[in-house]
Design brief:
Blueprint lengths: L45 E15 L5 E8 L2 E6 L5 H7 L5 E10 L5 E10 L2 E3 L9 E14 L5 E6 L6 E2 L5 H4 L8 E8 L16 E8 L2 E4 L2
Parallel strand pairs: 3-5, 9-11
Antiparallel strand pairs: 1-2, 1-4, 1-12, 2-3, 4-5, 5-6, 7-8, 7-10, 8-9, 10-11, 11-12
Length: 227
């Protein structure tokens, strides 16, 4: 074995220059502005509850149209909101001082104000429900057992049929997933809604009546506003 030790050639190693730092983005760290097109709040199912009390004073919106009244319930005064086109029928039937029961849900505005959103009103032995502003619809009330559930391409329920009824009772697609836990074949439901008459020139095959767009639905002892 040779004892000669060779000198190792040491080559100069060039150090790479540091990469230039990217300029700081002024927008980093700042919250993004909400985009109304993409940041829409997810629609929620509104459970309804009854509130009994005495009708108080009516109030008007900035256009001078009645759109609310107060309801005194056990020492608490609540503001009940309703659509302005419902004002005439409501004011004629539920005068201040009359005992009434409001079926609705509590809603808190972005300003922190709380009001009761009216779905129906029981007063003097009659039940009043806000109808669409357009008169070209027919109010419908139905009850019975679910005979069939209809689904959209994604598998979410979009409508139901009752035993002995051919009409579809439809609800908005965005509520299908939330209603899925309540709707089963054989369950008893009560429903109200609107049926749009066929327009001139429209023709349906036999056995396919005009669908009903649901407004309220009661199933399993719980009531919901459908919208």
């Amino acid at each position: 074995m040779s004892s000669e030790i060779k000198n190792l050639e040491v080559k100069e190693v060039k150090t790479a220059k540091p990469a230039p730092q990217a300029k700081a983005n002024k927008s980093e760290g700042k919250p993004k502005k909400p985009d109304p097109k993409h940041d829409k709040p997810k629609a929620k199912l509104h459970p309804l509850a009854p509130y009994s009390g005495t009708v108080g004073e009516y109030g008007a919106n900035p256009d001078g149209l009645y759109d609310r009244f107060t309801l005194a319930t056990g020492g608490t005064e609540r503001t009940v909101k309703f659509p302005p086109h419902f004002g005439q029928a409501l004011h004629a039937a539920a005068r201040p001082g009359a005992p009434a029961t409001v079926l609705g849900y509590l809603h808190t505005t972005p300003k922190g104000d709380e009001h009761l959103h009216l779905a129906s009103l029981d007063v003097a032995g009659q039940t009043l429900r806000p109808q669409p502003a357009s008169p070209a619809t027919e109010p419908v009330a139905a009850q019975g057992k679910i005979a069939e559930l209809l689904h959209d391409p994604k598998g979410h329920p979009r409508a139901l049929r009752l035993e002995g009824e051919a009409s579809e009772l439809r609800f908005p697609p965005h509520l299908g997933g939330q209603l899925a836990d309540y709707l089963t074949v054989g369950a008893h439901v009560q429903a109200t809604g609107q049926r749009r008459p066929d327009r001139p020139g429209e023709l349906r095959p036999p056995g396919h009546p005009t669908p009903v767009q649901l407004e309220t639905l009661t199933v399993g002892g719980e009531s919901f506003l459908i919208k």
